[in-house]
UniProtKB/TrEMBL annotation:
This is Adenosylmethionine-8-amino-7-oxononanoate aminotransferase. It is found in: Cytoplasm. Keywords: Aminotransferase, Biotin biosynthesis, Cytoplasm, Pyridoxal phosphate, S-adenosyl-L-methionine, Transferase. The keyword Transferase applies. Pathway: Cofactor biosynthesis; biotin biosynthesis; 7,8-diaminononanoate from 8-amino-7-oxononanoate (SAM route): step 1/1. The keyword S-adenosyl-L-methionine applies. InterPro entries: Aminotrans_3 (IPR005814), Aminotrans_3_PPA_site (IPR049704), BioA (IPR005815), PyrdxlP-dep_Trfase (IPR015424), PyrdxlP-dep_Trfase_major (IPR015421), PyrdxlP-dep_Trfase_small (IPR015422). It catalyses: (8S)-8-amino-7-oxononanoate + S-adenosyl-L-methionine = S-adenosyl-4-methylsulfanyl-2-oxobutanoate + (7R,8S)-7,8-diammoniononanoate. It comes from the Bacteria. It is an enzyme of class 2 (transferase). Substrate binds at residues 53, 146, 276, 310, 394. The gene is bioA.
Amino acid sequence: MDWDALLAADRRHVWHPYGPMPGTVDALPVVSAEGVRLRLAGGRELIDGMSSWWCAVHGYRHPAIDAAIRDQLGRMAHVMFGGLTHEGAIVLAQRLVNMTPEGLEHVFFADSGSIAVEVAIKMALQAARADGSTSRTKLLTVRGGYHGDTFGAMAVCDPVGGMHSLFTGILAEHVFAPRPPDGFDAPLNPAWAAAVDDLAAQHAHELAAVIVEPVVQGAGGMRMHSPACVAHLRDVCDRHGLLLVLDEIATGFGRTGALFAAGHAGVTPDILCVGKALTGGALTLAATLCTPEVAARLATPAAGGALMHGPTYMANPLACAAALASTQLLLDGGWRSDVPRIEAGLRAGLAPAADLPNVADVRVLGAVGVVQLDGPVDMARVTAAAVERGVWLRPFRDLVYAMPPYVTGDADLARVCDAIVAAAAAMAEAPAPG
């Protein structure tokens, strides 16, 4: 296979995430993957420290997931979900209801995390119409958040520090509270709580819901905050008659050390978004769950009588089959020992980075390890330093981080940590701009 020609065509024709067109940097050509390793053209292997953007929690080519997809393919690859249903969707919905915080009983299947957030926002806004009010058209969220790249989701991402500031003035305008103070083990910060209380009281007449990523903010900066902040937001919603929407697309299914990050706070949201690890990275699928109370409000004539959304690939049978296999692996419980093991390995392996002169912070929670630099990363330099050590990382902004598959062994995890520290050191050695 002529990979030089293929990569040239890739640069000319294929648009990669968050990049220009035509491309300026060659993507690494992957020909296969198994376990926690990506095999490149030419035979080189890289340990995947990213779980393919946080979804391949069981690694690649897991026999249970592959077998489930093959079995489903022998019956049907897809069928429309409007007016039809199938066993996989029904059983998966039942399982998600049983796995998620108590009280979430209804499941809307989406085809990506961003769409799950769009559905959640739509649920909240339609539910706000149930009493005939047309003024509750905004959501309250916190700075530092990221919820996706579609328009509704972009509007509740950080409007200043996020990646969507180009769309200021075009997106819907919501209400932003300060970013929760750092520290998973920290008590509730009274000043932050008071600021949230004041904003909620001031805007209660125009708010439909609060939406946040609980405990860990993902692509907005990989920050970790106290579960007490999530519990406080639940209280704020209850006091003002608002819905609480928790975006657990990145944090759900064990990533933070609890099955869902809401569990750290002991709260049930009114609406919950899940995705990424749902299928173990095999196929794209997400879901938005809600309480019976939310569903009942949407069924009223004032709220439209129905949820006005319906993706073409909603509840795709192949994706549901993969999700049933992936969630069964989670129910089997191996992650409950693997995630603490990975957390311990990340803490030990990333500790040397704290001594580097250009490192501002090192933080770990569950299977999330982050080294924050004192300036933006040089993507090419950092990637090259990691690849040289046999590891695939995808840094962004000022962060070099890992969210490895739960099945990553101790030796491979040590290599991931070594690659992160080496990448941070490579930035320390980089010549100053200009």
